[in-house]
Write a structure and sequence with these properties.
Order of helices and strands of chain A: HH
Helix content of chain A: 55-70%
Helix content of chain B: 40-55%
Number of strands of chain B: 28
Shape of chain B: elongated
Number of strands of chain A: 0
Structural class of chain B: alpha+beta
Radius of gyration of chain A: 18 Å
Oligomer: heterodimer
Strand content of chain B: 15-25%
Distance between the termini of chain B: 35 Å
Largest sheet of chain A: none
Structural class of chain A: mainly alpha
Largest sheet of chain B: 7 strands, mixed
Number of helices of chain A: 2
Radius of gyration of chain B: 32 Å
Strand content of chain A: under 5%
């Protein structure tokens, strides 16, 4: 029973961390161009010239 | 942001105009930067992305250029007061681009709310499921109670956060005395949670927290997909060419010109309209002579000559000479606004259409609620155990909750929309797709829909030498006939630009040696009254003597004949509704072998649709002009090419981007396909309920059984929907080639 006091909070914290990571990636616009992302990985020059 | 920055500089008018328009459409960023959004419909692969980004980034003053392949848009940030020549340099590498309203940084709030709700529901569903599996695999009493409490602690905030999308909609429906799909969902989810909480408090063995939350999760998937589909089409359609002018040069009393946004133009203002621009508002020509392209307004294919005193309507295209016009109406009172009013009147018929999922849920909700209630009464009567009766009744509600039903329709429609998108066809919403599958007749507009709206040289009996001369002269004019002449031969006699003078409304004049050549209207080009055939609209003369006469026809849109044949094969009746004069309409109708009605007013087109509806027919209207807009709104469903007027495109349920008319039969085939899959999915859901409901009523459903049944039924529905994607795979492989051809055609023309 004592294991639960460690394991369950850890499990839920990991889940929340995953949720937080998804929220962050959503907010930083990583899902805005899914078709483009699959093509961009093939580009030689990664950074667009500024 | 100032629109007058470019005014002091004396740059050629069209360039200055483009710059001002771009400045008006861009968004100021901190640090003197501007962001401009361009819509580039021809982007279709990674190669295009790279080429466009490189070309744009190499321009002076451009800070960054980023292409979004999904929305086919390029976002450019630049500094300085003068916009870089973005459109011209894209044109140079073969991409037609249009300005797009720069959107604010934050995306669509509705969509991100839904995705966040979906993420939270997914997190909660997986964690509660994890805890539930331990319970099902035989956790002892204390552990089970702990896990139930933990589940309740996760489920409560999730219901509050993710569930509100359904609660809100259900409440809105109930308040207006209606019921929708969200009412049984809300009741099911809340009852399941309430019962589970009661069980947890009383240390009962069964809790349905997992069912309650995973229901939300599955239903949110369906809801989000539906939303994404509509959003994607909306963005794509919005990003197309803006045919209505964004602004115009107003001439003030002291003679200076100012570029004004269209909303600020008031009646009485004097406006300058350069060749190549659209007339911004209704008005009268104050000075100048030109030819006008009225194809979007009336469907007339032949350009019309105009001079001082003639009335102008918003949306006409000024072709040859600069015009000074006096505005007689503000933009909101112009011809366009009349069309909008007619559309609103016409649209009432379509709003009566109920989506298939709404119809299904209207039948479904009362049946389920009644079944649950009867189960409760039955168990009360049989056992007298209130707690047991409630538990079983709630289990009936949970297991019949329209999980599969909520996914059955949107899944198929999203896959269908995706397939259409790959073919360059945008669907506004799922309802349009459902209606498209039901149609039994197709009505085509002529100019701009069946034809490209670009004239083509019809007679091929002209002496090559003469043709080369005519093409050489024509190359100096923007008139559609001149362009058609110039494009008709590769042998062009080169003529120095200063030898050529364009007489707006009449034609082009060229001095070669001592001879004066005129290309244009017979009455102007020919000295004496020489008899010319009636169909002749353009002649070439040398010192007033006829050299050659030219006839033009409107070119059929690519694959028009094949598309019509396919439509007939699909069992549809096809006819033409044209606003053009009888003769050109008849020519096209004969070429395609179709019945036609010509010289129709916008009201005449809607009347024809109403007549068909009265016969019980469901018509698809395909059209592009402003004059088609009311008909597009009135028809059972409608399609418009990407080149259509803004209003027409907004009225249409589907918009096709490529030139080929095959988009119409393709869209109908996919819609019919999707419709049969939707029906299959609904049948599967009914079959599932027919099996699950008796089991639940008999009291055999435990949380484990409910979880398995719901997941399996959802999976079956999803897999069935994905079958649509697998069909005719080879067909979709031709698409890149076709898109590339369109690009070539675009840059050549």
């Amino acid at each position: 029973m004592i294991d639960f006091f460690f394991l369950i909070p850890i499990a839920i914290a990991l889940g929340i961390a995953g949720l937080g990571a998804f929220m962050w990636s959503l907010r930083s616009g990583q899902y805005e161009d899914l078709d483009g992302a699959s093509e961009r990985i093939l580009f030689d020059e990664d950074k667009p010239k500024s | 942001m100032s629109c007058c920055a470019a005014e002091q500089k004396s740059i050629a008018a069209p360039v200055r105009h483009a710059g001002d328009e771009m400045l008006l459409a861009s968004r100021a960023l901190p640090g003197g930067l501007h962001q401009t959004s361009l819509s580039v419909p021809a982007i279709h692969c990674g190669g295009c992305v790279q080429r466009i980004e490189r070309t744009l980034a190499a321009l002076p003053n451009v800070e960054t250029a980023r292409v979004n392949l999904s929305t086919k848009r390029a976002s450019v940030t630049w500094k300085g007061s003068e916009p870089p020549p973005l459109l011209a340099s894209l044109k140079g590498i073969g991409f037609d681009a249009h300005l797009h309203d720069a959107e604010p940084e934050a995306g669509d709030p509705g969509l991100s709310e839904m995705i966040r709700a979906l993420a939270v529901a997914g997190f909660a569903a997986s964690n509660i499921m994890l805890l539930s599996v331990s319970v099902w695999s035989g956790a002892s009493a204390e552990t089970r109670d702990l896990f139930h409490w933990l589940s309740a602690a996760i489920a409560l905030p999730t219901l509050a956060y993710s569930g509100r999308i359904f609660f809100r909609s259900a409440w809105r429906a109930l308040r207006h005395g209606r019921t929708n799909m969200d009412v049984p969902i809300t009741i099911g989810v809340l009852l399941a949670f309430g019962l589970s909480l009661y069980e947890t408090v009383n240390r009962g063995p069964h809790a349905y927290f997992d069912a309650s939350v995973s229901l939300l999760f599955f239903l949110l998937i369906g809801r989000t997909l539906d939303y994404v589909m509509r959003d994607r089409a909306r963005v794509a359609v919005k990003g197309l060419a803006r045919l209505a002018a964004r602004g115009a040069y107003a001439i003030s009393a002291d003679g200076t010109e100012r570029y004004l946004p269209i909303q600020e133009i008031a009646p009485g203002m004097l406006l300058r309209v350069s060749p190549g621009d659209r007339i911004p508002v209704d008005g009268v020509i104050a000075a100048g002579k030109s030819d006008l392209d009225c194809s979007l307004i009336s469907g007339e294919s032949a350009p019309r000559a105009a001079a001082a005193g003639d009335t102008l309507r918003a949306g006409m295209l000024n072709l040859t000479g600069p015009l000074t016009m006096s505005a007689t109406a503000a933009a909101k009172d112009s011809f366009l606004a009349d069309m909008l009013r007619m559309m609103e009147a016409a649209e009432s018929g379509r709003s009566r259409y109920r989506r298939i999922s709404d119809r299904a849920s209207r039948l479904y909700a009362p049946v389920v609620h009644l079944a649950a209630f009867l189960t409760f009464l039955g168990w009360m009567a049989a056992s007298g155990d209130m707690h047991r009766a409630i538990t079983i009744a709630v289990a009936v509600l949970i297991i019949t909750c329209p999980c599969a039903l909520g996914l059955a329709v949107p899944m198929v429609q999203v896959v269908a929309a995706r397939r259409l998108f790959e073919r360059g066809i945008m669907v506004k919403d799922g309802g349009g797709l459902e209606r498209l599958a039901e149609i039994d007749s197709v009505l085509f507009d002529k100019t701009g829909t069946l034809t490209t709206g670009h004239p083509q040289l019809a007679n091929n009996d002209i002496d090559p030498e003469t043709l080369a001369l005519a093409a050489g002269i024509a190359a100096h004019s923007r008139h559609p006939y001149s362009r058609a002449l110039a494009a008709s031969t590769s042998r062009k006699q080169s003529i120095a630009p200063d030898a050529v003078a364009e007489h707006a409304g009449n034609g082009v004049e060229a001095k070669i040696g001592n001879d004066l050549f005129r290309l244009g209207r017979p009455a102007w080009a020919l000295a004496a009254k020489t008899a010319t055939p009636e169909s002749t609209s353009v002649v070439l003369s040398k010192n007033g003597v006829l050299l050659a006469s030219f006839e033009f026809t409107d070119r059929l849109r690519r694959d028009a004949i094949e598309a019509i044949a396919q439509l007939k094969k699909q069992g549809l009746s096809v006819e033409i509704l044209s606003g053009d004069r009888n003769r050109p309409a008849q020519q096209i109708a004969d070429a395609l072998g179709l019945p036609y009605l010509a010289e129709l007013t916008p009201a005449g087109k809607t009347a024809r649709i109403a007549a068909l509806q009265a016969e019980g027919k469901k018509a698809l209207m395909v059209g592009d002009g402003l004059n088609d807009a009311p008909a597009l709104a009135a028809a059972h469903t409608s399609m418009a090419p990407a080149t259509a007027a803004d209003v027409g495109r907004n009225a249409a349920d589907l918009v096709f981007l490529h030139e080929s008319l095959l988009a119409v039969p393709e869209a109908i085939a996919i819609a019919r396909n999707a419709n049969s899959l939707v029906r299959q999915n609904l049948l599967l859901s009914v079959a599932y309920n027919a099996i699950a409901m008796p089991v639940a009523i008999a009291g055999f459903v435990t949380p484990l059984v409910a979880a398995i049944a719901m997941s399996v039924s959802s999976l079956i529905v999803i897999v069935n929907a994905l079958r649509l994607r697998g069909r005719k795979k080879s067909e979709s492989k031709q698409m890149p080639a076709r898109a590339a051809r369109t690009v070539e055609a675009g840059s050549a023309g």
